[in-house]
Amino acid sequence: MRSRQRMFAAVMRLLLKCLRLGRRRRFKLVRQVERLWHYGHLCLRSLLYNSFTNGDVVLDSLFEPVYWLVDHVTRWFGVVFVALVIGLTSSIVAIVYICLLPLILQTYTPAWICWHLAYGHWNLIMIVFHYYMAITTSPGHPPQAKNDLTGVSICRKCIAPKPARTHHCSICNRCVLKMDHHCPWLNNCVGHYNHRYFFSFCFFMTMGCIYCSISGWEMFRDAYAAIERMKLLEKERLQVAANQTYYQTPPPTFSFRQRAFHKSVVYLWVLCSSVALALGALTLWHAALITRGETSIERHINRKERQRLQKKGKVFRNPYSYGSWDNWKVFLGVDVPRHWLTRVLLPSPHLPHGTGLSWDLPPCVMEQRAPLLAI
Ligand SMILES: [Zn+2]
Ligand SMILES: [Zn+2]
Description:
Blueprint: H1 2-48, H2 55-62, H3 64-107, H4 110-136, E1 153-155, E2 160-162, E3 167-169, E4 174-176, E5 181-183, E6 188-190, H5 195-215, H6 217-243, H7 256-292, H8 296-311, H9 324-332, H10 339-345, H11 363-374
Antiparallel strand pairs: 1-2, 3-4, 5-6
Helix pairs in contact: 3-7, 4-5, 5-7, 6-7
The structure holds zinc ion (2 copies).
């Protein structure tokens, strides 16, 4: 009996010992897991730590796959958009030459014929020249040799100095001097060296569309009425054919040539008036920006800066604006009065003022301000 009690006590002691040991081990494991968690957390934080990290960066990182998709789609579709612009413009020019010009030559007075021939061809040359220059001219990029640059900030994507007014284009994947925006219709960025070509193309294209819409209004009305009449006659013809007892197709009321002519005129007018409205609004928006000496990107930056300074009771002044009229002269490269003809009203491949790396006062503005400074 006594030996049994002793054995029971020994077993209980062993069991208690095992339990204590297990508890110790379990705590040790928890402590180890805890230590590993803290170590991993610290590693991750030290790897991701950046003094520039803020809410915007986190949001940008989260939306990075969406940006990637949009950028790639825009890059691929750029060629399609350019082909579309060339195709649609060519179709309008072809309709004018094949359908409208013979009619104008036959029915209009010599004075009107001269006006249409002169204006139409001048406008067409301006559109083709500025579109070609806008898609083939590089907008300008900061130089690869980074030592000679007085950068005001660092591009996070290129890890290189970014001169004033320069921004990174995620579609071109490089920094662009005085970047305005990436235009899918040009498949190119709009920046320092091709901003004037882009605006002139928009302006002359709008002018051309307005010209076609106004001068083709009467023809459009006639063509539209003819198409309606055509549809009605076609319906009647089919009804008559269905009631006839003999199997003979009645002759068509309108020839193929007449149908093609009327449909082409309607297509021309609808396309031109739609483009005139849409592109006209865009051109006006860009004209307002040029008047203020801003790019599309600077418009947002300056608005934020204006609001920030307004709260402090200060007034924001755009350092790249020289006054409305001078902004236009600098933008178009008009140094002397004859440049309005040679550089604005005629195709001109002249370069813009400056290199796009630094923004000194342009010579034409400096000349005007010199007498004021002397006083
Ligand atoms: Zn960059
Ligand atoms: Zn771009």
